[in-house]
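Input structure tokens:
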């Protein structure tokens, strides 16, 4: 509520408001105990200019990302030039240095009035937290995880800050709270910190056991997100490729003379971090042409309204009646009809050996050049003729349409499943952010939580079509005219939806804690306890509630009172058992059982 509203007016409209979690738990006697570290995700942390070209005159240490985005509107091409990284190295272009904003202000608000961490910080402050026992692990979210250390020594700073917090709090271990891509970044950190220098931080195999109480992951894309594929393939993801999160009307504007999307694509394709979110585990995890773990999911299911705890048993009892069998394993289908066809009836022509070649010399496109211009008409046609792509073949597709991007990316990220985790090759940093190719630390006393929203349609697969040819066009686009109607309500505007938090499907957020790491497995050899905490999405009751206190949406969940209460309790000393163990509303346990992965 705006503070300017008199309290009695607010109460008259909304009824008595519940105490914020910090106030409520303060009354119960909870006090600050364990130091807390926040790890922000992609696009949520502020970035400021330290060195730039002539066009950026007067912007020294001004925010180019986050804040008001004023410079984007004043000098759009200059802004794109400075926000882009070098296409070969994935690091700073010559003469440009953009660095993360430091401190809690780096990600408390994304833009004026749009909170990210601010509500959680304010509630922790109510039980005695302040800057000395709260730390924002800000990093440049555009560059690959290992490069944040190479360029900025960010991982070393996180390590020394955690060590300082443990030492200055009398030996109390730290609670880590990563959000979104920060979840993968911290997975990378936990491996980096153990490994000897120069590749790692040299903390030794017991560093995590000595310093970490719990890792409370919020909206974690552990196994990637399908929307990263559409973002890299055609710049159409809502927020992973950041195209839509810049400003609401940005993409509809004529700011770049009709070529906004191409400029956005050129910029976001220099950000190596976006490749950390390509789906991992291939068809084993995400399904093939004829099966998927979420098979039988009903899009019009009515969810229980409130967060009354709902166990795996009652979840299994709910029978899927007349569920349309969406073939979710087909992440990209060219044509709505192809998405439904039996696989035996799909005629496919392999695209991998297709001849590429420039369709025509086009000098007007130089400013918005994308790798599509090197594919030629033959290459574009070959991609569409292959008809269907699963999580396994999507990697080949991206290597075909974006070879430069994927060459840089495959030096820093990997998407497979390890056969033998003791194989020496898995000591390389490119495997560290993939939970299927790395082991959790040897820290049996630590706990890992997967906390995420459910009950919101979330992108899972796409119906594509070829774009009408134009001068500087992106040749593929989601077919927004593809609708499932009553027969297939999961298909809306060319996108097949499944349950999730609007960005991360439940499968990606929940599988590792539900099964992959549950008990002692080869991915979790020391048997770290894992807990799933799902929060059922309830939209704000009225306008005065702002973004709501029961939201399950990917970013708005950061203001969810139930989630904040869970975090405060753990920071004040509680365990996962004290919170009541798992809290599950979705089919995550059932879906996890369908995945045949050697554990």
């Amino acid at each position: 509520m705006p503070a300017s509203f008199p309290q009695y007016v607010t109460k008259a409209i909304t009824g008595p408001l519940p105490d914020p979690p910090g106030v409520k738990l303060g009354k119960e006697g909870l006090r600050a105990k364990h130091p807390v570290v926040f790890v922000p995700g992609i696009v949520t942390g502020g970035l400021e200019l330290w060195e730039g070209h002539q066009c950026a005159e007067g912007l020294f240490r001004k925010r180019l990302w986050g804040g008001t985005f004023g410079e984007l509107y004043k000098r759009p091409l200059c802004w794109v030039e400075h926000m882009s990284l070098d296409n070969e190295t994935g690091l700073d272009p010559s003469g440009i240095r953009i660095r993360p904003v430091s401190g809690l202000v780096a990600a408390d608000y994304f833009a004026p009035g749009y909170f990210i961490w601010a509500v959680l910080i304010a509630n922790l402050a109510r039980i005695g937290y302040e800057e000395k026992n709260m730390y924002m692990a800000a990093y440049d979210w555009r560059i690959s995880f290992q490069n944040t250390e190479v360029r900025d020594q960010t991982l070393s700073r996180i390590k020394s800050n955690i060590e300082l917090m443990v030492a200055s709090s009398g030996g109390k271990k730290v609670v880590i709270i990563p959000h979104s891509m920060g979840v993968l970044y911290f997975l990378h950190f936990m491996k980096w910190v153990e490994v000897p220098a120069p590749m790692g931080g040299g903390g030794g195999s017991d560093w995590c056991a000595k310093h970490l109480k719990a890792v409370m992951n919020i909206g974690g894309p552990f196994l990637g997100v399908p929307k990263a594929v559409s973002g890299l393939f055609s710049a159409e993801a809502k927020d992973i490729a950041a195209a839509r999160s810049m400003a609401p009307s940005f993409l509809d504007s004529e700011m770049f003379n009709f070529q906004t999307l191409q400029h956005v694509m050129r910029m976001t394709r220099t950000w190596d971090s976006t490749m950390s979110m390509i789906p991992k585990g291939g068809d084993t995890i995400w399904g093939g042409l004829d099966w998927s773990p979420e098979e039988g999911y009903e899009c019009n299911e009515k969810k229980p309204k409130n967060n009354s705890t709902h166990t795996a048993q009652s979840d299994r009892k709910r029978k899927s009646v007349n569920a349309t069998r969406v073939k979710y394993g087909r992440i990209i289908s060219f044509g709505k009809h192809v998405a439904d066809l039996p696989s035996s009836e799909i005629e496919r022509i392999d695209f991998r050996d297709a001849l590429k070649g420039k369709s025509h010399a086009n000098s007007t496109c130089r400013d918005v050049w994308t790798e599509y211009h090197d594919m030629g008409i033959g290459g574009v046609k070959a991609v569409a003729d292959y008809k269907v792509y699963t999580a396994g073949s999507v990697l080949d597709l991206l290597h075909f349409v974006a070879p430069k991007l994927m060459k840089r990316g495959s030096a820093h990220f990997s998407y497979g499943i390890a056969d033998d985790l003791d194989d020496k090759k898995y000591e390389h940093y490119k495997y560290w952010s993939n939970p299927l190719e790395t082991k959790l630390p040897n820290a049996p006393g630590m706990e890992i939580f997967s906390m995420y929203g459910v009950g919101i349609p979330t992108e899972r697969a796409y119906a594509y079509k070829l774009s009408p040819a134009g001068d500087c066009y992106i040749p593929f686009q989601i077919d927004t005219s593809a609708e499932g109607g009553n027969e297939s309500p999961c298909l809306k505007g060319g996108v097949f939806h499944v349950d999730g938090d609007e960005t991360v499907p439940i499968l990606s957020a929940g599988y590792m804690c539900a099964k992959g790491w549950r008990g002692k497995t080869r991915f979790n050899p020391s048997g770290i306890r894992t807990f799933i905490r799902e929060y059922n999405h309830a939209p704000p009751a009225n306008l005065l509630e702002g973004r709501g206190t029961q939201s399950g949406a990917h970013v708005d969940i950061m203001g969810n009172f139930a989630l904040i209460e869970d975090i405060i309790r753990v920071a004040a000393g509680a365990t996962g058992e004290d919170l009541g163990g798992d809290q599950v509303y979705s089919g995550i346990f059932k879906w996890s059982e369908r995945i045949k992965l050697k554990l």
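The chain is about 30% helix and 15% strand. Confidence is low (pLDDT under 50) at residues 238-252, 302-310, 312-323.
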